[in-house]
């Protein structure tokens, strides 16, 4: 068997191992090790490359962004900023059609700018938004679906862990990836808002237990208005944190790593000022930061080892040649690639898809003249859809488990996320067809 054929066979083995339940890091290590050994017929070379990858794979200063942004997100979650953000959005949008749904999207958009993790948003707003929406006459499944659907904004609106991981795998600027995610992220949030208003007007029974709009308006009027000073007090901390991190990053004053460090310190000050961080909770935050960061960094070492195996097999160059000879062109390749990611999203988690596909696809995209920042945004958008599609749909299961309501089935939440998936597909097509949406500020 040729090196190329062996490389393709090993990719199939990798997907099979993951489907059988082997953790993605171990599957990547095993396949890469076996691939280098078999392709070069040299066991010693496989061990030496494993040693070299483990030593140098995450030695760069850039990799400190991961634990720093994880720490910032966990500290922000612990300080109850998400609840305050939702309360202000609810106050400002109470008279809008589907006001609480729109408020959930708005709060998720702001919260995403300081967390970067969809699962954190899903867990926080399940506790905050779902009970409030249910009390105001929204269907519990629709309320849960709204939280799950809007939580994906955390993976696209910077700072995002997926954008960081893609930037490392594709060897592109993480700051550039953050900038590229701004317009698509706002497009996605705006699309969610327009969809919620349209669905409420056209299919009120899908949204409300009692479709009589007057009931919702009466409940809204009964609530006393929030004083402007209290609204400002609730929004000021998160606004300052967003301005500190993203303002410093986009102005060029901070590198991504420095922005993560400043953000983590700012989030710590915020949590201490709000008296929401005792010794026990601080220990839990630090322990979670370590667990999450180490798992991601281990995955990146495994992905680097896997990428070296692919290069030895000549797979990226061979596939690039096949794509060029087939006449697909850049756009045809991109849509074929997106279709593969959407299918993988039904059975694998977001990070696993990135780790498997980015080392193969990024060199091919570069050889076809596709801007890698634009390609990364398309990739992350496609991967995000997998957070909502069955049978995996980790955001849906996070909401379902956090809600812990036997009357709200996971199937009902999946059904409620379908309009969000439709919006995401529409934004994905627009971004793929018009690269300027991602490269406008680059």
UniProtKB/TrEMBL annotation:
Q: How does it sit in the membrane?
A: Multi-pass membrane protein
Q: What single Pfam family name could you report for this chain, choosing any that match?
A: DctM
Task: Determine if Acetylation is one of this entry's keywords.
Answer: no
Cellular component GO terms, alphabetical: plasma membrane
Q: Which GO terms describe its molecular function?
A: transmembrane transporter activity
Q: Please list every transmembrane segment annotated in the UniProt record, as residue ranges.
A: 58-76, 97-125, 235-253, 289-307, 327-346, 353-370, 376-400, 412-436
Keyword terms of this UniProt record: Cell inner membrane, Cell membrane, Membrane, Transmembrane, Transmembrane helix, Transport
- Where does the TRAP C4-dicarboxylate transport system permease DctM subunit domain start and stop, copy by copy? 11-435
Where does the record place it? Cell inner membrane
Q: What is its main location?
A: membrane
Top-level taxon in the UniProt lineage: Bacteria
InterPro entries, sorted:
DctM, TRAP_DctM
Its biological purpose: Part of the tripartite ATP-independent periplasmic (TRAP) transport system.
Under the subunit heading, UniProt states: The complex comprises the extracytoplasmic solute receptor protein and the two transmembrane proteins.
Protein family according to the UniProt entry: Belongs to the TRAP transporter large permease family.
What's the protein name? TRAP transporter large permease protein
């Amino acid at each position: 068997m040729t090196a190329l054929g062996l490389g393709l066979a090993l990719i199939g083995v990798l997907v099979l191992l993951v489907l059988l339940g082997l953790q993605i890091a171990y599957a990547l290590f095993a396949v890469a090790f076996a691939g280098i050994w078999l392709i070069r017929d040299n066991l010693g070379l496989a061990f030496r490359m494993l040693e070299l990858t483990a030593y140098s794979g995450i030695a760069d200063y850039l990799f400190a962004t991961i634990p720093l942004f994880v720490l910032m997100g966990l500290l922000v979650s612990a300080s109850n900023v998400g609840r305050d953000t939702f309360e202000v959005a609810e106050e400002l949008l109470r008279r809008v059609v589907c006001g609480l749904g729109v408020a959930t999207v708005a709060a998720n958009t702001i919260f995403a700018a300081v967390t970067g993790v969809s699962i954190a948003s899903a867990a926080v707003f399940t506790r905050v938004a779902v009970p409030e929406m249910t009390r105001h006459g929204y269907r519990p499944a629709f309320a849960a679906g709204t939280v799950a659907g809007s939580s994906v904004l955390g993976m696209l609106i910077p700072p995002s862990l997926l954008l960081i991981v893609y930037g490392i795998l594709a060897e592109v600027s993480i700051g550039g990836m953050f900038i590229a995610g701004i317009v698509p992220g706002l497009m996605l949030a705006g699309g969610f808002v327009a969809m919620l208003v349209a669905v409420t007007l056209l299919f009120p029974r899908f949204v409300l237990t009692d479709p009589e709009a007057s009931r919702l308006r009466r409940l809204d009027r009964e609530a006393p208005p929030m004083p402007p000073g209290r609204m400002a007090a609730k929004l000021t901390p998160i606004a300052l944190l967003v301005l500190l991190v993203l303002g410093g990053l986009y102005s060029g004053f901070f590198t991504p790593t420095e922005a993560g460090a400043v953000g983590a310190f700012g989030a710590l000050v915020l949590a201490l000022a709000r008296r929401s961080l005792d010794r026990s909770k601080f220990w839990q935050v630090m322990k979670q930061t370590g667990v999450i960061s180490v798992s991601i960094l281990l995955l990146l070492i495994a992905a680097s080892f896997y990428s070296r195996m692919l290069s030895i097999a000549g797979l990226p160059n061979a596939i690039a040649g096949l794509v060029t000879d087939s006449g697909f062109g850049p756009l045809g390749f991109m849509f074929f690639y997106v279709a593969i990611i959407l299918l993988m999203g039904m059975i694998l988690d977001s990070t696993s898809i990135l780790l498997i596909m980015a080392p193969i696809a990024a060199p091919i995209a570069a050889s076809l003249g596709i801007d890698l920042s634009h390609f990364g945004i398309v990739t992350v958008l496609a991967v995000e859809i997998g957070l909502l599609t069955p049978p995996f749909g980790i955001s849906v299961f996070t909401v379902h488990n956090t809600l812990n309501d036997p009357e709200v089935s996971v199937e009902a939440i999946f059904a409620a996320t379908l309009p969000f998936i439709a919006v995401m597909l529409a934004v994905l097509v627009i971004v793929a067809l018009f690269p300027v949406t991602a490269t406008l500020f680059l």
